[in-house]
Every structure is written in C-alpha cells, then in structure tokens.
Amino acid sequence: ASAPSLPGVAHRWRRRAVGTLVQFLDRSGYLARRMRRNPGLRILAYHGICADEVAGEAWLPPHFVTASCFARQMRILSDLGRIVHLPDVVDDLASGRALEEPAFAITFDDGHACTLRHAVPAMDALNIRATFFAATGHIDDGAWLLSDRLRVLSSLPRRLTAELPAELRSYLESPTRFKSVACDEVRVLVEECWPAATEHLGPRVDRTLHPMRWPDLVALQLAGHEIAAHTVSHVILARETRARRAAEIVDSIRRVREHVSQCIGFAYPNGVPGDFDGRDVEILRREGIHYAVTTTPGRCVPPQDVYRLPRTSIGLGHDEHTFTLEMSGRLDSRRRWQQVGAWAT
Description:
By secondary structure, this protein is α/β, with parallel strands linked by helices. The protein has helices at 6-27, 30-36, 67-80, 86-95, 114-118, 120-125, 136-141, 146-154, 158-161, 166-173, 183-198, 203-209, 214-222, 242-260, 278-286, 320-328, 332-338, and strands at residues 40-46, 49-50, 65-66, 82-84, 102-110, 131-134, 226-229, 265-267, 291-293, 312-313. Helices cover 48% and strands 11% of the residues. Strands 1, 4, 5, 6, 7 and 10 form a six-stranded parallel beta sheet that branches. It has a two-stranded parallel ribbon with strand order 2-3. It is globular.
C-alpha cells in the first residue's frame, strides 16, 4: 500500500492537536466560564436523532446526531444554563428585553420519525420542550427528503451508481450541487431511479430516514412541544419562482394550522444568507407568523430581528467537548464562513 501523503498526515495531526486542546479547555472549565460571561439565547438546530448503531453508515446524513450523544448534550446544556421553550421568549427578543443568563432553545427541522424514538425520551427526562419545524408535504405523503435520497443513492455500490443517468450522477458526485437549482429538476431524476434503488436498502435505512406523519406531530403538540412550518417540499426559496416560494410558505403554514390549530414559527430550508429575502419575510408577517429561524450561527441578543433568528447547527461531528466549544460561541465566526458549503440544514 502507498504511504499516506504528507498533507493527509499533517491534517490528522492537526485535528488530533486541536482535539486535545478542546478537551483541555473544556475539562478546565474555561469554556463554561466564557459562556456564562456572555448571557443570551442560543437556538440549537437538530435534524434526525438516530440509533447509535447506524453512526458509521455512509447513507447517514452528517447533520444527524446519535441518541447517546443527544442525551449527553441535553445534560450539558442543563448544567451550562437554562433550557427554554422558544415561543416563550420570542416576545422578549422582539421587545428588546435581554436574557440575563445563558439560555438555550431546542429545535428540530424536517420531521424525521427517528427523532420520536430517540430524542423525545431524553427531553422528557429533563422536562424540555422543543420546536419541530415540519416540511409538510413529506408529512402528508411519507416521502423521504430529496437530500436524504441523494445521499442514499451515493452510498450504493459503484456497480449500481454506474447505471444511473449521467446527470443524476453529477449531483451524487457533488452533494451540494442540487441546492443551486430548482428542487423539481433534481426530484424528477431521483424519482425515475428510486424504485430500483430501494430494493438494495435495509430496514435500518427506512427506520432512520422516513418522516413523521400528522398523528405523530399532534401527539408532540399535546405533550407541550411546538409544531411550526418549514415549507411544503423543503425547497430552498431563492431557487424557486416567486409564485412557488409564496405557495411553499403559505401552504405549509396552513397545513400545520389545520392539524394543530396554531403555527407562529417558520424555518427557512438551508437557511443561509441568500436563501430567502425580505419578500419572504413579508409573506410570513401577512400569514401571522411571529418569528423565523435561519442557520446562521450565533446568540440571539436584543435588539434582534425575529424573522432572522440565528441558530447553531449540531451534527455527528460534535463530541461532548466540541459541543461545549460550540456553545461557548468560539466557533461562530468559523461556522459562518463554512455554512455556504454545508450539505443540508
């Protein structure tokens, strides 16, 4: 076998050195002290919470978190500050009232059913109420998200992916490219190949990636969690026509209200600068939405635009030490620089 390249060796040594430093800063209490000197609300963005046993699978989205990690992260937050329910503090942010202590709010995007099995018990144990942003079209028909299906297709054996259309293979080889075009252009390509691809999927894939249905969300709302909107088809608004953008926003809000009566929150799919604009915000205002969240990392410190609330995305790369580092805010500027290339949020 060929020897590893010098850049590859240097990269691994640098990661190891950084990991050692982060552990030292965490265990010494420095990160916790730094965070307590900077009160304010940090909103966390989660997606699927999966079984520990699938953590190494190639088809698993990197923005998922394992059940054991999620439970540890909730305990860490409980030690670092106060975990609040997002709709309870939005009015404070809008009016300019500052939180005088570190606070955290938990949110989940998309509506993966594995979250019910693996996140809700951990939150129940600590009396945590969260916000679930539902991509309502996927809740209606049970279809997997496009980003999830692309990742599954890219994880198939090479002999199978070689048989896929060349245009679809180009999206699999560059996993963020699909974000640059209208959603339906890619969806049509995937739909044509999906039935044959599903023959090669095991039950663990389906258990992890299939979406919740409306009875699940109604049960969450009855248990005290908030249900909010996340478009119909999880489209990136800026890639669609103005009419499609309006329909995606309005129809998702109205579907949530049909099932759980109230909908005051919204999450922009992908949620980075340029994915939405002021005209989308005006639609949200007109529909009676009180707040909307992005994926731009940072703390919510009044005066805060409640239609562009920052959130910190959490994924498989967060162990207990890097998670505490993330909560301290030390990585916010780095994450803002990285977020344009993120796979999916």
